[in-house]
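call fold(seq) -> tokens
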Amino acid sequence: MDPESLRLLTELLDAPGPSGFESAPARVWRRAAAFADAVRTDVAGNSFATVNPAGAPRVMFAGHVDEIGLMIVHVDDEGYLYFEPIGGWDHQVFVGQRVRLLTKEGAIPGVIGKRAIHLIEPDDRTKASKASDLWIDIGAADKEDALRMVRIGDAGILDSRVTTFPNDRLVSKSLDNRVGAFVVLEALRRLAADRPAAAAVTAVATCQEEIAYTGGGARTSAAGLIPDIAVVVDVTHATDYPGVEKKRIGDLRLGGGPVLSRGSVVSPVVFDLLRETAEAEGIPYMVQAAPRETSTDADAIFTATKGIATGLVSVPLRYMHSPNEMVVLKDLDLAAGLLAAFARRLTADTNLAPM
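ret:
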């Protein structure tokens, strides 16, 4: 990955943006999309960048830009803040973490508190903590002091920044799924810089995927675009670390290339086109079975409007929904190359109906 692309990825990952509060990473994404023919946002918070808008077919590349987080729900008389998760947390992760709270006046720091081990009865020491057992300390003297700094409904994130590791590995709290938003934009940049595709291609940084009980930004953006084809880029569980059951998920490893989903809510035509593109371009890939839903934006896009031929490309990820998720940069580069090559193979005559 070239230094400029890595700089953009790092800026995206460190920008705080839990579901429903994605403005900061979305602004970074749109600024980096200045090369496109058209860049815009919508009232839901999705961001769009289009190359060759008059082309055919209409293609949507989607990666969600939100991350899991937390929200302030109560402030007590002593100035301690109580919170609920935004998205799917393992509550054990919260214990002892630093947080950044996103207030009207800017980000403020806090720490998540829990009774010290010395003050917990022996029988209770092995019990799992829940968010309701914890609180956030921002150093307030009392409730009035705290409410001068925060408001009920303010969101926050765990305060973990990007770290590089050996062997091309990157660690961050928000790889799920800023890497998807990065990959779709990087694919679009390659299309714009190289020979043009016949297709009109729009990269979308979707919002609210982590709380997408009704489809989130994926459904609204697909309904607005009405694409002929969509490819969603998200992360999937790597199974190359201890304790993960390959028999349930598959043999997926960091550095193995993009993962192509094959299953019930994935178009078999788009899957075959992605597989054929990878093989023609010499791009290594893995296949993951998806017998039911995929728990990604693909679920909402596949059934949007009158139905959209949808594929899912995933990046292998370790330690999902933690402050220290891990990917290999090569997998992002290969995924972007796959999407760009896929778009160039499409024509107005591409038949998307399953045979």
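The mean pLDDT is 94.
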